Amino acid sequence: MLTPEQKQDLETQIRAFVGRPTGPPSVGRDLVNEPMIRQWCDAIGDANPVYLDPEAAARSVHGGIVAPPMMLQAWILEGWSMHRGHGEPRDEQQRLHKILTDAGYTGVLGTDTEQTFTRYLRPGDQVSAETVIADISEEKATGVGVGYFITTRTTFCDAKGIELGTMNFRVLKFIPKEAPQSAAANADAADAQPQKPTRIKPPLSHDNAWWWRAVAEGTLLPLQRCAQCQKLRHPPRPMCDDCGATQWDHIAASGRGALHSYTVIHHPRFPGYEFPILAALVDLPEGCRIVSNVVDCEPGALRIGMALQAFIHEDEDGFKLPLFRPAEPA
Amino acid sequence: MPTTLRDEAAIAGIGQTPYSKNSGVSELALACQAVRGAIADAGIEPREVDGLVTFLMDSSDEVEVARSVGLGDLSLLSRVAYGGGAAVPIVQQAAMAVATGVCRHVVVYRALNGRSGQRMGQGVSGDIITSDLIHWSWYMPFGMLTPASWVAMAATRYMHEYGDCADALAQVAVVTRNHAQNNPAAAFYGKPLSLEEYYNSRWICEPLRLFDCCQETDGGCALLITSPERARDLQQRPAVIRGVSQASFDGQEQMTSFYRPDMHRLPEMERAGETAYAQSGLGPADMDAAILYDAFTPEVLMQLEAFGFCGPGEGADFVRDGALAAGGRLPTNTHGGLLSEAYIHGVNGVAEAVRLIRGVSHNQPERCEHVLVSSGVGVPTGALILGRDNG
């Protein structure tokens, strides 16, 4: 964590970048040309004849082949050299990012882009571009961590210096909530992929870790059983409230159940869950109740008493938990 | 030595800060304002206070409050757990201390930046492994993270047992909001709620709409408790503690007592009420007004039944009859409740009960000899009966 003084120093440093061009204007490596247009249309899957068919294009309002407007930025990209990464900053934007990276704001996430276009480009046009660091936000708390939104504004011009369009591009430069998984993520923050949020995992202790392990190993619904009096209990606890025994084992419940109560959760929308959540309290025939979710069911179809069947669901990150779905009619 | 708390202590002072969404000051500052306010209201010197009781979850240390407010030597420093469930039990702690001679003047307080700081409604999470956190582990992976979701689970079952009562929940929200229109301290003062707005509000956790859920507030509230004899010599009319209880019940969990045979009842609240009635020698028919913990509207129906103001399953009809309004059979939450005055974890409700006994509520019923006050619902809780001084 930065001290207030360090934070102030950092903000003074980064704010000085606002208004600065990232570097001298860059000129596209190639003039606008038909082969590049064709390759772009192939990649995007755009079959518009004004981009691809000289005869059809000649008959159109354009009078000849034009380039797709969305290619505007493509004409000035550096090409393969961008893959060298950003070990040593080569322009002002990279210098700005490095200051933040060194201060712990190692994550970077493209958030949104806005473009405007003034005219269609034709083969033979030359495109140049100048990019300015337009804005740096106050520090914001976001789902991925605290950070600064940095907006750059690029202005594209033709050979005569007449404007072809603009692009505002915004990135979030942030302190990831969890440490990066690999050193590579640190070394090249620009390539860091934000982690998809996942459901909150159960905090584990001696009293409940065994249950989640059993589920992970394939026990559909573990139910704690007193080793002395055989009473089943859920949620698990360290002592039997009937006989006082602290020894226990567990059985696997059948997985059948009946809906005892429920709520359809709409708000607030925590990251890592799909909304609405059908939260359910389920009566098990073994005599216990358990909280879980019902899936594969419309919210309006939930009925107290309806028959449910448990199954083990696995999240994309490998976390397993028992959920319920409506039971097949017998 | 007394063997009951009946008439052994009285609330002689109340203090509160402004209620807002962003206090701009620390929770300790709020606590100090509220505590000093209660002492000034009673008309004693800070140095005469010798006991402090607050919520376990309150962030303001007793000794920090004491040093800031200029209290003297303390003989009792005590805290009560379970969030809003503590609103009445902190009064019980103070009454026990006064009744047994441990203290002469106890101040109980609760202060929180509940909106601009740590928000209750945002739900549970955490890193420290406690038995409480393991308890939440059975709900967090399934998205049951908020008080609204836990209460909604019970409310669905309540409606299953007794029939749909969405219109009664709407009544609770609107009547409570109406009360706030006469209370300038209320967050929703000047902001009435129509039935149409209520029904158009978004779902939070079905069957709870936005206006079934209370707000979150920055603010503090404090009460000064002393003996009825001393209270008589102070500057306010005493609100005598006729009965006060704390209660937990078999199968109790914190907000998730889902595993009892009946989910549509509040047995801990029934027990809290029975204890307070027994102490006081009074019953539900003797109550002229009620302050019922209304973090969520269905809790009001369930408490009307738990305290015997109506029979099981009759809460909705009781509300539909207009009983909760200022001129109704049981004027309830006359300050605007947690729903529309402020969410000071129920302590602001105790302060309103004191105003009702003094005869200075903004929605004062004509006759007000006895008021029943409850604390947090779905947790270990308590009930308090205040009465006019007859001594």
Instruction: Give the number of helices of chain B.
Output: 13
The counted number of beta strands of chain A is 14
Annotated CATH homologous superfamily of chain B:
Thiolase/Chalcone synthase
Shape field of chain B: globular
Could you say what the CATH topology of chain B is called?
A: Peroxisomal Thiolase, Chain A, domain 1
Estimated share of beta-strand residues of chain B: 15-25%
Rounded to the nearest angstrom, the radius of gyration of chain B is 19 Å
The radius of gyration of chain A is 29 Å
Largest sheet of chain B: 9 strands, mixed
Total count of helical runs of at least 4 residues of chain A: 7
Task: Quickly give the structural class of chain A.
Answer: alpha+beta
Secondary-structure element pattern of chain B, one letter each: EHEHEHEHHHHEEEHEHEHHHHEE
What brief labels describe this structure?
heterodimer; A: 330 residues; alpha+beta; Thiol Ester Dehydrase, Chain A; 2 domains; five-stranded antiparallel β-sheet; 7 helices; 14 strands; B: 391 residues; alpha/beta; Peroxisomal Thiolase, Chain A, domain 1; nine-stranded mixed β-sheet; 13 helices; globular
Question: How would you describe this protein?
Answer:
The complex is a heterodimer of chains A (330) and B (391). In chain A, the strands form three sheets. In chain A, strands 1, 2, 3, 4, 5 and 6 form a six-stranded antiparallel sheet that branches. Chain A has helices spanning 4-15, 34-44, 49-52, 54-59, 92-102, 183-187, 209-216, and strands at residues 26-27, 107-117, 128-136, 140-141, 146-157, 163-174, 222-226, 232-233, 248-252, 256-265, 277-283, 289-293, 307-314, 320-326. Chain A is 17% helix and 29% strand. Chain A has two domains: 4-43 and 67-191, Hotdog Thioesterase (Thiol Ester Dehydrase, Chain A, Roll); 209-326, no CATH class. By secondary structure, chain A is α+β, with helices and mostly antiparallel strands. Chain A is elongated, with a radius of gyration of 29 Å. With 391 residues, chain B is an alpha/beta fold. Chain B has a single domain (10-118, 213-388), classed as Thiolase/Chalcone synthase (Peroxisomal Thiolase, Chain A, domain 1). In chain B, 34% of the residues lie in helices and 15% in strands. In chain B, the strands form two sheets. In chain B, strands 3-2-4-7-1-8-11-10-9 form a nine-stranded mixed sheet. In chain B, strand 5 (203-206) and strand 6 (208-209) form a beta hairpin. The mean pLDDT of chain B is 95. Strand 10 of chain A pairs antiparallel with strand 5 (203-206) of chain B, so a sheet runs across the interface.
